[in-house]
Structure of Sorting nexin-10B:
Amino acid sequence: MREETQSTENQQVISVWVRDPRIQKNDFWHAYIDYEICLHTNSVFFTKKTSRVRRRYSEFVWLRQKLQANSLLMVQLPQLPPKNPFFSLNNAQQVADRMKGLQKFLEK
């Protein structure tokens, strides 16, 4: 459920989890799912060792587009789980599959 970078006894670890999908309703007709993104690290480069934030799929799309637009970026960006026009907020398997895809995106 997370990726860790390990090598030596003085290893610095960054762990990330995507969990706790919740349906958010704007009004009767408009709803979406957001996910809790959790990060834990012992890295000296982070002042906060643990953080949590909620994000929705469209914010992952925005992030990937911004990273892609960075002309200095010389790495292949991981893919996001595909946008499904028939995605159902009430389909637990679809929600779980998307959550796993978002997890893989963040790990890479």
